[in-house]
Amino acid sequence: MVVRSGASMTSPLARAQYAALARMRLQMLLNSLRLSGGKLNLAARIIRVVFFSLVGLMMAAGLGAGAYSIVRDNQLRILPVFLWAVMMLWQVTPVVMVSFQEPVDLSLLLRFPVSFGSYVLEYLIFGLFDTSSILGGFCLAGIWTGIASARPALAGWAAAAALLFAAFNVLLTRMIFAWVDRWLAQRRTREVLGLVFLFLLLGAQLLNPALYGPHGQPSRNTIATMRHAARTAENVQRALPPGLAARAVEAAYKGNAGVAAVLLAGVALYGLAAGSVLGIRLRAEYRGESLGEAPRVTSKQEERKRGFDLLGDLGGPIGAVVEKEFRYLGRSGVMLYSLLAPLIMLFVLGRGGHTGGVERFALPLGAAYGFLGLTRLVYNSLGGEGAGIQLYFMSPTPLRTVMLAKNLVQFLLFLFELAVVVGIVVSRFGMPDGQMLSLTACWLLFALPLQLAAGNLLSINMGYRMTLTRLSREQGAAGNGLLSLLIQLVIIVVGAGVYFWLSHSGQVDLAAWVFLALAAGSIAVWLRVLASADRMAMRRRDALIESLAKAA
Predict the structure, then answer these.
(1) 7: Cβ–Cβ under 8 A, 6 or more apart, which residues?
(2) pLDDT tens digits along 494-543
(3) CA 58, CA 32: separation in Å to the nearest integer?
(4) d(CA 42, CA 205)
(5) How far apart are CA 237 and CA 225, in angstroms?
(6) Please, are residues 523 and 442 in contact by the beta-carbon 8 Å criterion?
(7) Is 499 exposed, middle or buried (0-12, 13-18, 19+ CB in 10 A)?
(8) 3-state SS track over 9-67
(9) Degrees (nearest 5) of the Cα angle 429, 432, 436?
């Protein structure tokens, strides 16, 4: 039994632990600069922070100008719209960027005598550096600046509302991901969540023909129903945190300080509720609960029945690696979540009907966005091996065979994602025209081998240890994530550039031939990278084992 000491979050021992943690993180940063790719990882983190800070500043400027206008014009009833937008941004950003997030797994601190209060405090502090917190914080600062500039007397009340609302969003985001980690680590709850997502998709699909007529125009009954739903939503949102915070500022504007204080207390209660639910999850981890799945003992006959027969009798090293990859994927809720999240967001955010000609490009855009779910699998394909990476260097099987098998799995997963994307596009926009179908197919023949080649290069040269049971990323993910994002952007820009250049010159039919020529080059590059996999891996063997086999 481990005895936890330092019961208070502000005790001398707790303060010493905070300082030790800060020194440890600083020393880890300095030590990482000595490793291959360490400077690139640091540069990637700096670029990411600067980029999202600039995006946040632009959003803050727009929201600040809007807040200034509504306060000046006495239109504070519009303020809830701003706060709802901030809340949606705060909660949706981690889902959209699930393949590029780099949170810190603080459960490692539980190996030391850390008090529960200190553990919770450190967990929340690290949550302040998430991308969603950076964007949301800038947005709330912009809204506060606009309100305070238009009416300085409201500065105090607006600051209190913004701080309480920010605290609620931080707690809610951390609570959601803490519980998602737990649910995705259990096979039964993972299956239940999969069914829930499936029913949500099907239910949303059934709403489309119910709400819109054959010409894509809502009927009178639909308009009346939507108006009634809007009035109901308006009444409901008034009792939720964005509505309460906005109403508190409006009450203070009208001189009702008591009402404003009560409404702010309501926001605080929501934050307390989110924090309490988060505390239940963290308390379970603090007491030693593991998120892993303990496999039950099964007979050899049962294992044969549960084997993967997707590729028939494909045997040898390739078949073994393919089966292992599918088993790992089936047991990792985190990876399944990464695969499904972009598809779900594509379905939810996609709009049917006519959208000014954009629907013509729905298929290639959907295919490009759907590939985001494979980013972690493709560009860090060795990350899930952990200490098992050493077996590859002791095995007589060439590493190029292992990488070929992994690429085969990635190709099959992309076909699945592409099939879902096509289904979404057809259901929302109708069947794409034949020319766009052929152009998209030719572009994918160029894009996919190039993605696999780049993924193999980054997996060997910038691989990092990847946890398959938690939504956390180890050190080294920043540089890998930045380069993977840039490579995908370059591939998309090349495809768009070829299409629009030839379309502008009236020779769009040549685009397919250009893509096929590029595809021949990308396939050659992929084969060359595969042939060089063993040489690169042997050159990087020590660094690769160090980064993948290090202690959790």
Answers:
(1) 115, 117
(2) 988 888 888 888 888 888 899 999 999 999 999 999 999 888 888 888 87
(3) 33
(4) 44
(5) 18
(6) no
(7) buried
(8) CCCHHHHHHHHHHHHHHHHHHHHHCCCCCHHHHHHHHHHHHHHHHHHHHHHHHHHHHHH
(9) 135
Contacts 24+ apart (CB under 8 A), 189-193: 190/333, 190/336, 193/333
Q: How far apart are CA 57 and CA 361, in angstroms?
A: 30
Please state the length of the chain: 552
Q: Taking the mean position of all CA atoms in its chain, how far away is CA 242?
A: 24
Residue given tokens 């090293």 in the structure block: 317
Residue 469 one-letter amino acid: T
Flag whether pLDDT at 112 surpasses 50: yes
Could you tell me which residues are beta bridge partners of residue 212?
218
Residue 130 three-state SS: coil
Give backbone dihedrals phi and psi of 114, rounded to 5 degrees, phi first.
-100, 135
Rounded distance between C-alpha atoms, residue 495 and residue 442, angstroms: 10
Cα atoms found within 13 Å of the Cα of residue 391, Cβ hemisphere only: 8
Tokens of 63: 């929201």
Tell me how far apart the alpha carbons of residues 181 and 188 are, in angstroms, rounded to a whole number.
Answer: 14
d(CA 150, CA 154): 9
- Residue 192 and residue 184: Cα distance in Å, rounded? 10
CB 339 within 8 A of CB 417: yes
Spatial distance between the Cα atoms of 9 and 506, rounded to a whole number of angstroms = 69
Specify the pLDDT at position 304: 45
What residues have CB less than 8 Å from 218, skipping those under 6 apart?
Answer: 211, 212, 226
Q: Is the pLDDT reported for residue 23 higher than 80? A: no
Higher pLDDT, 165 or 222: 165
Distances (CA, A) of 83 to 124, 147, 155, 161, 482: 22, 13, 16, 10, 30
Dihedral angle, C-alpha 300, 306, 307, 309, nearest 10 °? 140
Q: Take residue 272 and report the two structure tokens written for it.
A: 């307390």
* Tokens 């394909």, residue located: 381
pLDDT higher than 70, residue 253? yes
CB 549 within 8 A of CB 386: yes
CA distances from 310 to 314, 315, 322, 414 (A): 9, 12, 10, 15
Better-scored residue on pLDDT, 471 or 181? 181
Q: Give the whole-angstrom CA distance, residue 245 versus residue 239.
A: 10
Structure tokens at 197: 């997502």
